[in-house]
Amino acid sequence: MPRILAITGGVGGAKLASGLASVLDPSDLAFAVNTGDDFEHLGLKISPDIDSLTYALAGINNTETGWGREGESWNFLSALKELGGDTWFQLGDKDLALHLHRTTMLNKGKTLTEATEAIAAKLGIRHPIIPMSDQPVSTLVDTCDGELSFQNYFVKEKCEPEVNGFRFQGIESASLQAKLDQWIEGCQGIIICPSNPYVSVDPFLKLNGVKEKLAKIPTIAVSPIIGGRALKGPAAKMMRELGISSSAESVAEHYSAFIDGFVIDEADKESANSIKIPTISTNTVMLTLSDSISLAENCLGFLERFL
Length: 307
Ligand code: FO1
Description:
With 307 residues, the protein is of the alpha/beta class. The protein has a single domain, classed as CofD-like domains (Rossmann fold, 3-Layer(aba) Sandwich), CATH 3.40.50.10680. The protein contains twelve helices and 14 strands. The model has no long low-confidence stretch (mean pLDDT 97). It binds ligand FO1. Ligand FO1 binds at residues 10-11, 37, 48-49, 51-52, 67-68, 89-91, 95, 151, 154-155.
């Protein structure tokens, strides 16, 4: 089986990631995770896309929200509210333990990669979860209300402000995580999961040298837009506000410089003809793990064409 790198961020990415992890051994599959959503909150260093993937691969994720853990209690948050603390970013009691533990490790000088590895190991995860960089990159959203940090835009403002563009603070001086660099050098194929192209995938793609590396490796992407809509999150709204039609074709165009194949949902199969890149249509709506496994198998079968 070829060694694969899956690029992921957010909820849609984590779902396909679970399918891929069910099909490929840890020696054949690693995950490159977006860290642009990371922020410091209440003194905690929070990495939401790493956590969504970690919880999903450990099978302890909250499948309703796509973030945080299942079976949470909210004592910390309600006590914080009593004290007049900031409760707009909801932290469950078990989730809080992970943020505290990661923050402790980082404050002791561990890298984000080392902290992520330590947590994944404790949760029994065997596939490498590798942050895109160990240097900080912060996604800033330029909106009609000025520039907002990502979590401020996404959670506090509920993605309501109209978006004009994005900035990835720190991207110029951040380097591709070394283990990730090694994995890319040795891998035969890359799958860009159905994450938000603009805020969950672009930060990784904009790291120095990444696009050049991807151009040399067979790469496919799965559309996060189905029938003009994103199943979760603001991707379609962002596209419209950026003056881009919220369609699978637009996503193919966005990635066209370095993908060899594109996967769209069967709801959009007619548009396959208007996409220049080799395209397959299949079910990309993942409601169950078996949906995720089927999509993973279809992606791997499709990727084989380019190996
Ligand atoms: N998303 C929300 O919409 N509301 C929240 O209160 C919230 C809390 C939260 C806590 C931990 C965590 O890892 C993720 C959390 N998210 C929340 C999701 C987060 O905003 C992510 O950035 C999104 O998943 C988009 O990638």
